[in-house]
Amino acid sequence: MARQEKKKDVVIIGLGWTGSILGMELCNTGLEVLALERGSDRNTVPDFQYPQVADELKYGVRYGFMQKPHNSTVTVRRSESETALPYRHLGSFLPGNGVGGAGMHWNGHTFRPMPEEFELRSYVENNFGKQLIDDEMAIQDWGISYKELEPYFDKFEKVAGISGQAGNLNGEIRDGGNPFEGERSSEYPMPPMPQTVDSNMFADAARKMGYHPYKRPSGIASTSYTNPYGMQLGPCNLCGFCERFGCLNYSKSSPQTCILDALKRKPNFEYRTNSEVMKIELAADGKTARGVTYIDPNGEEVFQPADLVIMAAYQLHNVHLMLLSGIGEPYNPATREGVTGKNYAYQTNGGTSLFFKDVDFNPFVGSGSNGHVIDDFAISQIDFAAEGFVGGSYISAGTFNGQPIRSMRLPAGTPKWGAEWKSGIKEWYGHSMSIGSHGSNMSYHTNHLDLDPTYKDQHGRPMMRMTFNWKPNDIRMTQFMKSKIEPLAQSMNPDIMQSSFKSQGAMYDVRPYQTTHNVGGAIMGSDPKSSAINKFLQTWDVHNVFVMGASAFPQNIQYNPTGAVGALAYWAAEAIRKDYLPNPRPLV
User: Fold this and answer.
1) Cα 409 to the center of its chain, rounded Å
2) Does the predicted model carry a pTM greater than 0.85?
3) Looking at residues 117-146, what average pLDDT do you find?
4) Which residues contact 302 (CB under 8 A, 6 or more apart)?
5) How many other CB atoms are there within 10 angstroms of residue 529's CB atom?
6) Residues that are catalytic
7) Which of 19, 357, 475, 484 could cross-link with 14 by S-S, CB 3.0 to 4.6 Å?
8) Closest-CA residue to 89 (of 510, 417, 557, 465)
9) Which residues pair with 466 in a beta bridge?
């Protein structure tokens, strides 16, 4: 029988970005808050101290800060006709492990989705016609508008300490920013980061072609900064160890740098690590949650009663836990009924590598969010009817890391070992750059998440099964981006140029890293028949359970998801504080 702990007002599952935000906001109302984190504790000191954290082999190659598949994984298949098999070697996506979650080891790219992305289905139907949305495509409106969320984007950017330059400030289009972005109410907290050689070369070439380059908004401090919680960030020293690493310099926006030390000082906050939640326990009527059952560090089962449950784990884990707990009807792709597990989506990427014999790019200098970006082929800028696809992409160039093992780009045909490989490294290391496409991914009725009927995890629970494959719309979109990137790259006169874009017949492959931008499965919307949570991220069926994170996205945006994830967390927190707590009930 499970041990029972003293009741808390709130239990939060996961202590990454959204868990930290909800913890801080709800503690500020005077509630007793407990966070349960499945991984270990992570602190800037001593976990990110130099030189130990700048160990590329341990963290960059062997994934020292990532979840281990023997502890937590999913099974993967590309269609109903395939047998799903466990994802046993991290490749395609890299969920974080421990306090801070993926927010601890991310690159810091911090965008706001375009206003059109929040109402994508309506935007497509109203401007290009319903015929572009085929019967298999499952895109939906979010049930919330950019205008409603704008103040919460602003709040997250101030807490996270984002470096950038506004392109649309209160309706004024400003030089140096993104002229296609939604209207902003204030400037970024810090000016943009300094740029590397490749970034500036790309920007110059883009301007000559009539495009509108701007410096990437960065969760990297360009100067010293103190955020609204009193947390201090120091200017980045461009060490190049951002992606897959914790920041040793208090420069990268992360829960550790921006929230956790302030949150831990709250007398009404507690967190327990190495505590994996097994299930959300529902009342007999199934309409409210009583609390959660978790396994403590000693392997003992514990029941933690709570009045309010906040699901703030990674997207995949949120959906898995909802399925295990019976929250929302599981999605059935055959009948297209049910909501939990629906509309899983990913990211559609491609790129072109350029090699220059006479340019030294100094690849040891960089930051995770370095680079210039163009949005001239964003969702709002493409005639979908003319091009025959729905979606868009930002295009960018810049040096993200100074890690030599992972930064040895070589011309095609170079042997992968031996004397010729060494010769190739000698000739080309530091003499290449890339231009990348980071594109949206539409949702489809056949791409979904459910419980695997065969494989079980270490606790005897069914693993979650991912069914996902690329669709013709994805291929058309990425080939369109190729047609725009290659002429731009060619205009820069490289000695060698080579591209990698998905082409007709491409199948999803879990082996190469793509992004850790898994979305959907517990999507938000305005109708309980087609969404798992309402516009306030509250589950339709169990009113005291709220679900944070990218699991809410009805399809994937063209941008990195963290900006939207943070804004939605602050939006939900305010709804809980001002509307739910005085009168607990379904908010919609």
Assistant:
1) 25
2) yes
3) 97
4) 2, 3, 4, 5, 275, 293, 294, 295, 296
5) 10
6) 517
7) 19
8) 510
9) 76, 449
